[in-house]
Amino acid sequence: MSDTMPGKKWKTSRTIIIFLLLPLLVGVAFSFLIPRPIIGVIRLNDAIYFESANALIQQIEYARENARIRAVLLVLNTPGGTVVDTEAVYLELIQLQAQKPVVAYVQGMAASGGYYLSAASNEVYSGPSSIIGNVGVIVTLPEDPFIVEDIFTTGPYKMTGAARDTTLREIDVIKQGFYQAVISGRGERLKLDAEGLLSGQTWLASEALQHGLIDGLGSMSEALDHTAQLAKIGHYDVVELQNQINYSILYSYGFFTETSEGVITPFPNKAGIYLLYVPPSARRLP
Amino acid sequence: MKRKYIYIAVGIFLLPILVRGLWFYRGWYRAPSTLSAPDYESFRMPIPPTNSEPKSEEITDPDGRVVLFDYSHYNQFNFAELDPFLEDLSLRGARVEIVQETYEPGERPLHERLKYASAYVVIAPQASFSPTTVSLVERFVDRGGRLLVISDPTRNLYDYYYEYFSESYISEALMADSLLAPFDISYANDFLYNLLENEGNFRHVFFHQFAEDELTDDLSELVFYGSRSIQTNSGIALVTGDEQTRSSQTSADTDLAVAVRSLDGGVLAIGDFTFLTAPYNQVADNQIFIDHLIDFLLSRERSVDLTDYPYIFRQSVALLKSEDFDLTSETLETITSIQNTFNTRGQNIVFTDEPETDEDVIVLAPFDSESEYLDALENIDDLVLPIDTFENLTVPHFGEIASEGIGLVVIVQEDDRTLLFLLAASMDDVLELASILETDEIDNCLVWENIGICKAGSAMDYDYGFDDYDFDYDYDFDFDDPLLDDLFPEEDQPEPTPTPEG
Predict the structure, then answer these.
(1) pLDDT tens digit string along B253-285?
(2) What is the CATH number of domain B66-297?
(3) Nearest CA to B418 among B480, B472, B362, B380?
């Protein structure tokens, strides 16, 4: 009997070990193969121009290719920038957004091209007093075509690129793209009509919320929570994607004009067509 | 039994995996189907409407009316920009004169030019108008002259200091307002825009609403390229924006006017300059409107009065050689001087006893002249000329006045010509009065409409009623006359003080 009991106990223990503990341990071990999801944070604290746009595009590509990154929070503080660079980043975000949720969080300003980028996100959140909007295009017209004695060209607009009137009409095409991007991105949430949207006005985030330009006010943590909800993840890591790519830029030096005293101004350093907000106060001496 | 254990084992194996999976992942993301990139390929550049009628090449009204362009208030435009407009004016027979800030030698000041001009055009001034100039222009308009004021929000004086990134900005609307205030017209310091329907840009606004007026005949669409709104209480808003046209000052829906005509029709204010320039003058019905503007500028029904002197003549002038006129060295000097003055002004003058019917005439005559030309004065009410030297002269507005020492200047407008009378008591006085023809100055006369009274000759030449006193002009002054001692008693002279030399 005593031989039987230990044998039975052992048998029971062995059964528990084999069919309960071992699967549990193996299951626990295997469960660690399930990665903790990541919300990638892409920050833009600059104008949108060649360098900053390249950095953004690399981060977007990284997020798209990395399976652990389940969503992206785009943190914006930008007055916009060049048309081509803004559109390039926008199109990359559209592709990313088809795979993973993208939420924009405005931490300061998402004006002009900055708001263009936010139009590629699922939702837009903002701090209460951030500046939102300024939908439109700004251009300095080229000079009237001219000829000089010592310079020959093969066409009248070779030196100026286009007639002034043509350039003026071209920006309307760019405006149409911007407008369609916002309409597409905001959909029925947008409460402004075309006239209001294209007025070029900037709004405080609280006003922008009423106009349907953004989805909510709050902190960046709350924006992260909204991002997680969209991505349908419960617990996650937050990773700054800037640190994941091998690309660094010098802050603003490539875009804004710098005075001889070293002051960086809000004016682009060359003529062109921009999706840019230049604050009026910046045009006056302090 | 064993199979049961296997199921349990599998379940227990999966449990932590499931728990961890659900701990992190609650579902799958599904991208919204609505979000897509814009269809960039479908966007097209807006094309301007070019249905304006070609401008007339005919010379339609070659009567040489003068249009003055102000260039004395730092006006923010270049005459090269106005070439198409100036060409149109020229085709219509108008003569353009530029009123500069500083007068070149021989150049006439504004108050002189307004005497003969048909219209005064002010474009984008950057200096305010003095009260004197405003009064001059007001009077010019009162008397049929046309005033066209053009403001343009793109023509503000804008200085930008790159070194400091600072700017200074002066709106020319305020300057234009200083001239328009008496006519109940003022510009807003704004710009108009239409975000929904525009000519390539929000600030290029279509206008389809026109008040009934000769200036808006046949207009169906105008395009203004950066325009200001204009306010008036009594005037007529000729061109107004539709519901979608907004002012940069307020987004309230109002009928914003960009062209306003004053109540009496003499003043026209427009809120855009660009539409006058190429190629924008050829867009929509802009050229038709420009043609109407030229009609407006040349349509002055000018009423001439004496204050317009010397610009009262429109054709060759005949200085009448009447029977009262003896050709002496003095009269010859006066006549040649008058001739020189007229020639300097570019006006022909002949001395003749038989003026042509298409010549304006200057009549120099005494009050009692029997020249048939004085018959023209009979139609002037309350004008009574003295028959002899001792009678008084009765002049409308001035009443009865002594005729001696007084010259009378009268303009009479006949159908085809202008008659200018210079009358005085004697021919000597008439010659003295004629000095106004030599100097072009009539400032020393009292003028009321077409009549002026001036000093001519000396009243001392005439009898002042001292008949009982015998003036002896050959009186030989006698310093020993005791009468002088009474009149001027000698004062005691102080004794001279001796000097050391004695």
Answers:
(1) 678 999 999 999 999 999 999 999 988 999 999
(2) 3.40.50.880
(3) B362
